[in-house]
Amino acid sequence: MTETTALDAAHAAMDADPQDDAARLRFFERLADSELFLMLTEEANGENISPELFDVADGQFVLAFDREDRLARFADRPVPYVALSGRVLSSMLSGQGIGLGLNLEVAPSSMLIPAEALGWLATTLQHRPEEVQQRLAEFLPPAGLPDSLLTALDAKLATAIGLAEAAYLVGTKSDEGGSGHLLGIVGAVAGAEPALAKAASEALTFSGVEAGAMDVGFFGPNEPAAESLARVGLRFDLPQPEKRVVTQIVPGSDPEKPPILK
Question: Range(s) for CATH 3.30.429 in the chain?
Answer without folding.
Answer: 136-237
